[in-house]
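Q&A FORM
Asked by: J.P.
Topic: structure of TIGR02678 family protein

PROVIDED:
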Amino acid sequence: MEHNQFDEKAQTAMRILLEHFWILRSKHPEAYQLIREREKVIQRYVSDKLGFDLIVHQHFIKLEKIPVETKSWMGIQDFQEPRDYAIFCCALAFTENRTVDEQFLLTEICEDIKDLYLGDLPLDWTNYHHRRSLVRVIKQLEKLSILAVVEGEVDHFALNEEHEVLYEVTVYARYFMRSYPKDLIHYQSKEEILQGEWDRHEAVDGRRKRVYRKLLLSPAVQRQSEDDPDFAYIRNYRNRLRDDLEEHTLFRFEIFKNVALLVAEEKKQELTLFPDQKAIMDIALHLAAYLRDHEDDFQPDTFGNIRISPVAFESLLSSLHEQYGPGWSKQYREGSIKQMQKELTETLKSWEMLQQDTFTKDYIVRPLLGRVVGKYPKKYVEEGMSLYEQK
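REPLIED BY: S.T.
REPLY: Here is the structure written out as C-alpha cells.
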C-alpha cells in the first residue's frame, strides 16, 4: 500500500534517518520496514527541501547527510587524533579489496594499513599509541558493522602487538563511502568536496536547502553578521518554515534575534537531545542560570555573544561550584575545577554553545546557551541542600 501522506510514521522515520548513519535491516528490521513503508513521501521531502539522496538497499537504508559546513562535533567521537582518521581510511581501503564474508586475521589488516599509510612517520605496532589508534579504528568498524568479529577481542591488541583476532568483511563494507562527482584524488580539501556538493544545488533553491540543512543537522543557526544571508532567509520566511518543519518533523521551530533552532516537545528514543542524563549537563544548565542572574557583569554583544577571559571564566566556575556544587554528582562536587572546566567546555563546544578565540583564548558564550536554564527547586534550596551535603 502506498502512503502519500506525511503522517506520524513518516515523521518518526524521518527522525530515525537524521539521527543514524544508516539503518541496517539485519539489526533494526522494524525501523527499516517503517522507512520502506514511507519511502516515497520521505524521498520527495528530503530531495526537495534538503537536496539529500535517500538510498534504499535490500540490506540497509541510508540518508546521505551533507552539512553546509563541517563542525568538530561531526567527527567520529571516539577518535582522538588525526592519525586515527588516517588509519581508518587505510582500513576502509583494505576492506574494499576483500570479498563479502572473507575472513582475515588482525595481523593481515595491520600489515596492509602500514603499507597504505602516508603519514610523516611510519606506523610502528610496537608503539603503544599507534596500537591504541588501531584499536579505536577497528572498534569503530565493528560499530558500523563493516567488520564482524569471528573470534577474539581487539582490546587485547593494545597490550600485546602479537595478539590475534579473526574478522570477516560484511556486505556493508562496499557502501560506507558515498559517491562523489569526481575521483577523490582530484580534491585538495574538504572545502572543495563541499563546494562540489553545492554546485548541484545552488542553481535551484540553494539558499532554502542550506537553511534546512543547518536547522536539521545543527543544534541551532546563529546569526554571524549584520547581513547574514541564511539568517535573513530564516527571518523573512519564518512562518513558512515553521508550518513546514512542524508538520513534517514534529519539532517546534523557534527564532530569536540572534538564533533559530528546532526544539523537541518531548523526549524521543531516536533523538540526541540537550540536556541528556550526563552529570555534566547539570553544570551546563547552572552556568546558563548564573550568567542570566549576573547579566550586568556579562553583557552580550550585538550578536548575543558573551566574551569572557580565561581567568574570569575560571573564577566564574569557582563561584558556580560554591553556589551549586553541593547538589552536583560526587565527581564534580569533590573534583578539581580544572577538570570540570575541561569537560564542561568540551560539552558546550559540541553543542555550539561555546567557542574559544584562537588568539586570545577568551571563551565566547554563544546565544544558544541563553535558551536553557537550570535551577534547584525552591524547597531544596531552602533546606540548604542538606540531602546532598550529607552524601
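FOLLOW-UP: Residues 194-264 form one domain.
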